[in-house]
Design a protein that fits this description.
This protein is an alpha/beta fold. Helices cover about 30% and strands about 30% of the residues.
């Protein structure tokens, strides 16, 4: 598989505090990498660093086969990696839904007519065509989340960066979002506190704690009821039937 992102000993500091402390991680084509950790652990900072919205003080970042150091380097990265923000209101700013979905293709060089057609085709593909001419700020929270995803997917990204994608979704919109993402072949980095969601989508998991990454398992314990657990990497910790466990390699990497 080809490596899409590679961070090597990356450190990001803010206000005298190290948010990321020598982080190393790779993402390969087709992978769905879950990034888990407590609130404030730096998960969003990691996502922003991947596309150059946070400046690394040390270490190296390679994306799509090239070293990325300055703002100019990251412009290409942002065209290939679609970032879904935690809050859709940070992502949607055009008058209508179709305008928002067309915005990315326009920035990539499509004509107004081409971008509009692509936007409507993308909305139709994900059964959102009925929203095309709606005023964006009048959508429900769930509708905004799905439209935000459509706006990202209209740019045909090679990687999806999903920052808490299920925040504030009701059951119907949650199921729709999960169905769309599960059907995509696109590589993903997924930040989420929702373990069942990660259990369904992720192929590998890492835990961010104290600024450092370590391999993790996401799995179910069998009790009188079922609930999900996240464990830091421990080759001695195993469970029968664990979908993330591989003999002698519990991270599936």
């Amino acid at each position: 598989m080809s490596v899409l992102f590679a961070l090597d000993a990356v450190t990001v500091s803010r206000g005298g505090r190290r948010i990321l402390d020598g982080v190393s991680v790779t993402l390969e084509a087709g992978e769905r990498l879950a990034v888990v950790g407590a609130n404030g652990a730096g998960k969003t900072t990691l996502m922003r660093t991947l596309i150059g919205l946070e400046q690394a003080q040390s270490g190296s970042l390679t994306a799509f086969g090239k070293a990325r150091r300055c703002e100019r380097d990251f412009r290409e990265v942002r065209a290939k990696a679609g970032y879904l923000f935690q809050d859709p209101d940070d992502q949607l700013f055009c008058p209508t839904v179709v305008d928002d979905v067309a915005f990315g293709p326009l920035n990539l060089g499509a004509s107004q007519r081409e971008a509009g057609a692509l936007a409507r085709a993308t909305l139709a593909r994900f059964e959102l065509g009925h929203l095309a001419d709606r005023i964006t700020h009048r959508l429900s929270g769930g509708e905004k989340r799905l439209v935000s995803l459509a706006a990202v997917l209209a740019m045909a990204p090679e990687v999806l960066l999903l920052d808490e994608p299920t925040n504030a979704l009701d059951e119907v919109h949650h199921a729709r979002l999960l169905a769309i993402l599960a059907a995509l072949p696109t590589a993903m980095v997924i930040v989420s506190h929702e373990r069942a969601f990660l259990q369904r989508l992720a192929t590998r998991a890492v835990l961010l704690k104290d600024g450092r990454l370590q391999a993790a398992l996401i799995h179910e314990h069998q009790h009188t009821h079922e609930h999900l657990h996240i464990h830091a990497g421990d080759p001695g910790h195993s469970h029968h039937g664990d979908p993330f466990a591989v003999p002698d390699d519990p991270w599936g990497s």
